[in-house]
Amino acid sequence: MAVNKVSINGTTVIDLTADTVTPETLSMGVTAHNAAGELITGTHIEPVTYYTGEDEPSSDLGNNGDIYLQNPPEV
Question: Whole-model pTM?
Fold first, then answer.
């Protein structure tokens, strides 16, 4: 049985009941406990943008955090 709230002498020391983490919002392979206190493993994969071409991307191409690969893998 999962535990999502722990109180000691009337004082709450751990309370997961308001947590919003779900496997879909947690990074792939990372473990945590959801609001019910159940152990979950993340399934979220960050999207990756691949740009192809001969030249390096210009400073005005893409968004901050985009990943540029010269030879992107087949998806």
Answer: 0.59
Report the SS3 class of residue 12: strand
φ and ψ at 25, to 5 degrees?
-100, -5
Tell me the per-residue pLDDT of 8-51, one tens digit each, with 9 for 90 and over: 999 999 999 999 999 999 999 999 999 999 999 999 988 776 66
Whole-angstrom distance, CA of residue 51 vs CA of residue 69: 7
Amino acid 43 reads T
Helix (H), strand (E) at residue 39: strand 39-41
Q: Which residues contact 39 (CB under 8 A, 6 or more apart)?
A: 2, 31, 32, 33
